[in-house]
Amino acid sequence: MRCLFALIALLFTTVVVNAQQEAWQIVPGTSVGHVKLEMPANELASLGKPDAGDAAMMKAWRIWYGHKKDGTTDSSSVLAVFTAMRTQDTQYVKEIRVTSPHFRTDKNVGAGSTMSTVRKAYPGLHLVKVYVSKNKSRRIEVYDDEQLGIAFETASSRSGRALCSMVVVHTPGEAPGSYLDYHIGFDNLLPAKR
């Protein structure tokens, strides 16, 4: 009988650990945590009411911010989900963006990883977009593996090493941001060849 209880406890622990790991998993071309590409937008209700968003012409951004231990909003930790109409009455998830370092791929990269580490993990990445702020003080580079359906955006760090600031999961074969640009206040430049 003790063996049966021990086996049940082990099975339960394994299921709980796997569910927790899945909640923080980035799967290229598929999902970020429990948010999956092509899922109906009404299933996003499980995340609670979005903290921000924008909608127009049957497309919408829904944005959730993380929270600090004291309960205040952590605007540096963002989950942004882009949805668009595919049928007359239902929007579907088309792109997922995440800045929280808790979310990682199976190669253990995500926001906060150095871009050299990201590029080693995903050798198919290519520089596809460069954004520069209006006052030229900030620059964002977007590296994408279009076939896998994953892109990484950079931010400069104090050390001067490029760090991943955001991971974008999109439909394989389609470029990130092909539906609606997320970089308000930035000018899109043609990428320099690297």
From TrEMBL:
Annotated signal sequence range: 1-19
Keywords: Signal
Top-level lineage group: Bacteria
UniProt name for this protein: DUF4833 domain-containing protein
